[in-house]
Design a protein that fits this description.
InterPro entries: At4g02000-like. The chain is of the alpha+beta class. Helix content is about 30%, strand content about 25%. Bound molecules: zinc ion.
Length: about 280
């Protein structure tokens, strides 16, 4: 079976799907009773236990479709034909109907899937997230894959070890594109990083030997705006409707309370007048 996996690229879709259909590797954690937090039952685990439980899912992503998502079968065959992975991943439903969970076996496939440049399946756009145990379907993580360009970076710095050094303060290195890898386009390096979209990105850094340096500009191709109030991409805290609405409500409420109080006062004085 293991030897056959090497030939995965030549196997049919049905065969590929059957290869990964196997139970999760069993993980045993010491038994424990519930704890009571504010009279409510709570089961607690250590960080290490949670990390071990997430081990089979460490190369998983969540696709969040921006409108009605294609069926799981359509997504599966699209991935099979277009993503160029070495092994067909598990493609499964999530609680929210627009989300889909994609579990890959190999890190290389995961890096490929999270850094795809066209985020769409049959024309339906999606956002992609690295799944982690604290992933919450009701919020979007602020860590997102972002393509950046280092314009004019001399090709001697296209080695992965240099690119990882340059990009460490910006985000987690995912991969460089093929023209950078093969140095067939030498007007700059282009690479994908996992970045925190809620933070202000830096726009340059310096490279050089002691006493002799050059300024390196950074261009962000796909950095989305991220709202820390709503925990979603697409707008930021300044342009947040929810925040503006909340502020508006407060004003409206205050005004309303004032109105009610004024009406009460008027009514009381009328009453007083009536009684008097
Ligand atoms: Zn917002």
């Amino acid at each position: 079976m293991a030897a056959k996996n090497v030939e995965a690229g030549r196997r049919s879709f049905a065969e590929l799907v059957s290869v990964v259909l196997q139970p999760l590797p069993e993980l045993s954690v010491p038994h424990r009773g519930p704890k009571y937090v504010d009279v409510e039952i709570c089961f607690q685990f250590t960080k290490e236990e949670i990390a071990r439980s997430a081990e089979p899912f460490r190369f998983s992503v969540v696709l969040k479709f921006l409108r009605q998502r294609p069926s799981l079968d359509v997504i599966r065959s699209f991935i099979h034909l277009r993503w160029g992975l070495s092994c067909m991943p598990m493609v499964t439903a999530m609680r929210r109907p627009r989300n889909v969970f994609i579990r890959m076996t190999y890190e290389q496939d995961f890096l490929e899937a999270i850094s795809l440049e066209a985020c769409e399946v049959n024309g339906v756009q999606y956002r992609v997230f690295h799944w982690k145990p604290d992933f919450n379907e009701d919020e979007e993580p602020s860590l997102v894959p972002v393509w950046i360009v280092l314009p004019g970076l001399p090709p001697n710095f296209y080695h992965e070890s240099f690119l990882k050094i340059f990009t460490a303060p910006i985000g987690r290195y995912i991969r460089r594109d093929n023209p950078t890898k093969c140095a067939t386009r030498t007007n700059g390096a282009r690479l994908c990083l996992e970045m925190d979209a809620s933070k202000k990105p830096i726009s340059y850094f310096w490279i050089g030997m002691p006493g002799l340096g050059r300024k390196q500009e950074i261009l962000y191709e796909t950095l989305p705006t991220f709202c820390i109030n709503c925990k979603v991409q697409g707008h930021n805290a300044h342009t947040c409707n929810l925040k503006n609405q909340k502020d508006g409500e407060k004003i409206w409420m205050r005004k309303n309370v004032k109105d009610i109080e004024e009406k009460k006062n008027r009514a009381t004085s009328r009453n007083k007048c009536g009684v008097g």
